[in-house]
Amino acid sequence: MPAVAGAPTLALASADLERLRVRVRALAENRPGVYRMLSATGRILYIGKARKIRTRLLSYFRADNHDKAARILQAAHDIKWDYAPSEFAALLGELRLIRQHRPPYNVQMNRTRRELLIKISGGAAPRVYGGSAVAVGDRLAYGPFNSMGRMLDAVRVLNDLLGLRDCAATMPIVYASQGDLFDAPRHAACMRHQFGTCTGPCAGFVSEADYRSRADVAAAFLEGRTLTPLDRAVHAMTEAAAANDFERAARWRDKFEQLEWLLAATSRARTAIDLLTFVYRDPGTFGDDRAYVVRRGVVRATYPWPGTPIEQAAFAGVVAREQEQLAGPAWPLPLEFLDEILLVSAWFRRHPEALRRTTPLGEFDANCH
Description:
4-stranded antiparallel sheet; 3 domains
């Protein structure tokens, strides 16, 4: 198994491992928390979370030499941990620490499945494409979606109707205004331009303004601000049927159904994110309940659950300020908080009973008292 880039590969001596194991066994408790594997210089190599810290850490010492856990432990010279009030608090703490420190073993070795997203890239000629993670250079993201196949089919139809490219991000872009580059005959890099499904920004067949306006239409469609692609499919389908070209009409009907599915799926995703707006009372493992102010899937504030009238009044003020921030578009997803939104969404999807401990922001004051 190749080593992780930037991480030390020299294994700890067995005596050092044993001393580390004894310390964990003696000091760690079976409580939720976040732990950090540290190098000899104090660099954080790996961050993890557990519902039971002691059990999780001791499992590293029993791991097979070929396991990920064993490789992390062999690279570490120390382990530190902090307790959290609950599993949810540990999940959130782990995520934020990983985002802050970018430990090498988390970056290189984690291969967990991500939610399905539609992304619009930046760059000279934006691309609209689907995937399971945001890449460097992506500008907008929409989702999450629950069907990779249907999502990719719908994105392909959207790209075809708007003439947007689906080639590699590294494809050189040359717009029509750069006419001095075209002494030789121009040829698109793929057949889509000849088929009429791409405007050919790779070969100067479209102006930059025209291409970017098409990309803007794609974003507006995904955000529910225009039905232009759907209207075009309906018009073409109706026109083909009127000409008794039923085979062509059937093809346009299929395109219409793909776009209709995409419109409904993006609407459901927007609604799902909007509904992640509430105060969540998270029961602590040892009675230390926490109050989380969540706005569109992002934890905006965390406090001990308010018990006294003074605490309730102060916390109600925090909630009211967050309620005021709800005005404005909730779409597209904010890339800087995307991981947190997906974590919060997944938590309440896996733990539907937790929704019974939520209160909409606008109703919190009455419920709190």
